[in-house]
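Response to reviewer comment R2.3. The reviewers asked that we include at least one raw input/output pair. We reproduce the pair for Ice-binding protein C-terminal domain-containing protein here without editing.
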Amino acid sequence: MDYAPCSTSATALEILMKSTYKVLAAAAALALSAAGQAVPVALTQLTGVTGGTIAGTAVYKADLSTIGLASILSIGIRDNSSMLGGAGGQFSGFDLDAIKLSTTDCADAACAAAAVGLAVFDFTSGTIFAPGTQRLPADPKLFGTDGSGSAVDNSIARLGLFDGESTTVTPDGFLSMGDNGAIDFNLTAATSTAGLFLYIGEVGDNGEVAAGSILVRDTTSVPEPAGLALFGLAAAGLARLRRRC
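Raw output as returned:
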């Protein structure tokens, strides 16, 4: 197909491209600089179990006062359970019963379940969930998600309560992340790490938390740096325009 000559001269086009690249590169750099610090945390399993009527939730604790950050704004969990546990059409990967930030220092699971948590989680709009792979035969949704499997339904997951039932009752009270799934919680306010403890509950007590990756950050989490995505799209568009001139 023949194209009509571009009205912009080659020199003007080069100037436009260079200016656009500079603006977009600056936006990308800004997005990256806003990434802040992401610190992995060490978890210790507490004694005993908690959960629903069938108490099968193991609780893990991290002392956030030792991580080197004055405050945190987001928490990320990455499943790395190596396809262990779970069942086809049911739960796959790390099954998250609950997550809590508290200034109460607990030694057992029952204490963690009863401890008063800080009101800094928004389990609906403040959660970014990237579901992993579900074992075949796959169900239309993972436990604790909506029908698409990509959004947390907290009326089912109830991530603020240690009440998970490792059964097929509804609501189940936990979120199945899927193999290699990821979830990020953006807190509603910057939270001081002084005297702060993180508690994470894992349904089934089969070590999936210990096999995963838990990060805390001093900035909010985003799916990807917006500046980089914009840079890629605009660069491709300008390249096509240049080839047509």
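DSSP finds four helices and ten strands in the chain. Residues 38-217 form one domain. Further pairs are available on request from the corresponding author.
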